[in-house]
Structures are given as C-alpha cells and as structure tokens.
Amino acid sequence: LRVQNKKLYLATFAAVLGPLSFGFVLGYSSPVIPELRKINDPKLRLDSNQASWFGSVVTLGAAAGGILGGYVVDKVGRKLSLMLCSIPYVFGYIVIISAQNVWMLYFGRILTGLASGITSLVVPVYVSEVSHPKVRGMLGSCVQLMVVTGILGAYVAGIALTWRWLALLCSFPCCIMLLSMSFMPETPRFLLSQERHSEAIAALCFLRGPHADHDGECRQIEASFQEEELNLSEFKNPSIYRPLLIGVALMFFQQLTGINAVMFYAETIFEDASFKNSRMASIVVGSIQVCFTAVAALIIDKTGRKVLLYISGIIMALSTALFGLYFKMVPPNQNNSSNPDVWLTLKSASPGTESSISWLAVVSLGLFVAGFALGWGPVPWLVISEIFPLKARGISSGACVLTNWIMAFLVTKEFHDSIGFLTSYGTFWLFSAFCCLSVTFTAFYVPETKGQTLEQIEAYFRRS
Questions:
Q1: CB 247 within 8 A of CB 400
Q2: Is 304 helix (H, G, I), strand (E, B) or coil?
Q3: Taking the model in full, what pTM does it have?
Q4: Per residue in 43-74, pLDDT tens?
C-alpha cells in the first residue's frame, strides 16, 4: 500500500516540533555554561558543581515528566498532551530569561526538563499511531532526528547569542508546535479506545486521504481491543510484561553505551587534537549526529530495526574500546581548560604520546557519535512506540522514559567517580562491554517490527 495523503507528513511535522524543542533544551547548556561561569553577576555565576547541576537537573525534570506523561497520554489523549506540554516549556524559559539567581536557573531548567520528559513519551506514541506501517520507521526516526537538530541549533545559535537571547530563541519551536497541533487530528487508536468512532473516521480521512478503506482500518484496530481499563494484575500476562521488559532494557542499554560520557569528553579531546575552537568542535559533533540520524531515518524501513541496532552496537563497542586504548596511552594534560578535574584522574604509561595519536581520539569520537546516531539513538524510541498494547501504552511508555532519564542522570553525575574508581580507560572499556551486551540482547529478545501494523505486533506478543 502507498500513503496517498501528504497530510500524514504534516501531522508528523507538527508533532516533531516537540522533539525539536527537547533538543534545544539539551543543547542549551553547552554554550551557556561557559558564559555563566564567567559572568560578572555573583548571584548568577556558576562554579564547577553548580555547572554540573545546571546541565544534569534537566534529566530529573524529564524523569518526572515521563511519569506525568504516562498518565496524561491515556487520560486526555496524545494531541492534547502535546499541546499542554508547551506550557512548562514556555514558562521554564521565561523563568530562565528573568533569572536573578542560580536557583531560578535551576527551576527553569527543571520546568523545561519536565516538558521534555512528556514530549519524549508522547511524540513517539502519536507518530506511531498516525503512521502507515510502510513509513512508520522513517517517521518514527524523525523524532530523534529533530532532537539532534535542536541540539545542533542550540550550538550554532550559542555562538552569536547571549544566554538570555538564546533562551528566547529556544522557546519558539514549542510555541509553533502549540499552534500547529491545534489543527491536527487525535490518533485514530485513541479515539476508538474512547468509542468516538465518527471522529476516528474523520482522523483517518485526514491522515490516509478520502479514498482509503477507513472502516476496514477501524475494524482492524478495534479487533485488537481486549479491555478498556488496565489492571496492575494484568502485568503478570506475558503479552504485557514482555514488551515492557524489552522497552526498559532498551532504554537501559541506550544510556550505558556511554553516549553522555563521550559527549562530556568531546571538548577535551578536540582541544588535545589541536582543535582550539571548542564551540566549532561541538558543532562538528552535532552535525555528525544529524547526518547519521537522517541516514537511519531513510533506511530503517528497508533494513529493519534489528540490523541497525547490530551495526550501531558493534561500531560503538569498537570506538569505546579505542577510547580506552587512547586514554591508556596518553598522559593527563594538566593545562587542559575544559575538564581539569577529570583529566587529573587519567592514568598513563606512555608520556609524550598524545600529539602522535591524538587522531585516534578524534576518529573514535566521530565513529562513536555516528554509530549511536545510526541505531541506538533513534531505534529504541521507535521500538517502544510500537511494541506496547494499546491499553498499556501510556504506563509502559512512562516506565521506559523514566528508566532512560534516571540512567542519563546517573551516568552524567557518576561518570567522574567511575573514572576515579576504574580509571578512564577502564571506564570506557566497561562501556564497550555494555555495547557488546546490547548487541547480544538485541539478537535474543528484540522483535523485528518492520512493515507490521501495531495490531500485528500486539498479536505477536499475545501468541508468544
């Protein structure tokens, strides 16, 4: 079947303005923290510990947003949830723009994190439920593509704008999302779960065009319904707990690949490789993410989800192993300006080698970011939007988003301690081991969902 109506792409674009906002939130701290560490106002100036909290407190807000999003997405619907999450986005940026002290900065970041958590749950569900199976992989991957585009946009805009003006710019995508989503339909699956059949037909007419078999698709969706309400006792049912465990594990492995740790080291690595403009280096990294996430979006419906997870996991295992080798061979750089506390913990056996093998760090960094963007960046978010039964979609997606953001917080905050305990090369070799485990997990437990309807995927878990 071919998708006849381009309005499906319009609805997807309106929804993925949410992940674009989410990306701006994540990217905001990178250009802003150096500025706030040098600002003249002592009430707003960040020390090392405050800077670390300014960057990571977003993940705590997002974890709370995952819990809240899991509730509202089933109660008020996918469309209204997306529109409502614009409120904490805008209010959070207003607090940051008007901040008079560090605590107001924290509060603004928590609010934007809360909105990001809701967005990261609701948008994949909305996109998967409005999409046709033939293009669901591509459109679902656009969620992560817009996240990395937002990160890159914040990096680029941060070169020219001060932190208050950058916050103002970051508030625009969510305002546009609020306006555009008001013209988009609710998902047919949610409408049918609420017994709003005529509205579901109208939504399908918008999404599929006037000549598609709307009644037939409605019957297929309704045939998958079992009960209106989900009881906690039903989590004993393998058709509910198996996809939940797979989703939680995917989120767990996504963070333990070491993506946040590698991004933490990016500026330091580029400095030692004689890239003096660290902001331009960040833009290079962001551009690699955008390019390879776009590649993943274009090929995912042909290659399948599992193939990309295999390729991605193997590339990341290799690159983090090379990172470990680099840090094993290179001595600490006492004069490095980016992360001097971290570099003091580096262990080395070969002084004087850094200039000759700095290329190894740069190649490893580029390889890792490209590998992550190709598979373990977009695919877990896509898979969790596909595998949950309709009645458990909200609470199961909430559990996965909560897992992801808690792990992101732990990896970000505990990375320095792990370097002190395991040494830097030991830490990266541990990440390499987790990447290998992620490939093994994919091989044995992750189902291939390419080309299947959501109802067929749900039926697969019921049969197994």
A1: yes
A2: coil
A3: 0.84
A4: 888 887 788 788 778 888 998 998 898 888 88
CATH number listed for the domain at residues 1-184: 1.20.1250.20
| Residue position matching structure tokens 């093998």 | 357
CATH architecture of 234-332+356-463: Up-down Bundle (1.20)
Which candidate, 194, 149, 180, 410, places its Cα nearest to that of 292?
Answer: 149
pLDDT computed for residue 339 by the predictor:
47
Question: Measured between alpha carbons, how far is 372 from 146 in angstroms, rounded to an integer?
Answer: 15
Q: What is the pLDDT of residues 122-177, one digit of tens each?
A: 999 899 889 888 888 888 888 989 999 998 999 899 888 999 999 999 999 999 99
Asked, colleague to colleague, whether 1-184 and 234-332+356-463 share their fold, the answer is yes
How far apart, in whole angstroms, are the C-alpha atoms of residue 388 and residue 401?
Answer: 13
Query: Which pair of tokens denotes residue 79?
Result: 């469309």
- In 3D space, the residue among 106, 95, 18, 91 whose CA is nearest the CA of residue 59 turns out to be 106
Task: Report the distance separating Cα 175 and Cα 132, nearest Å.
Answer: 27
- Domain boundaries defined on the chain: 1-184, 234-332+356-463
Whether the Cβ atoms of residue 352 and residue 285 lie closer than 8 Å to each other: no
> Looking at this protein, which amino acid is placed at residue 163?
W
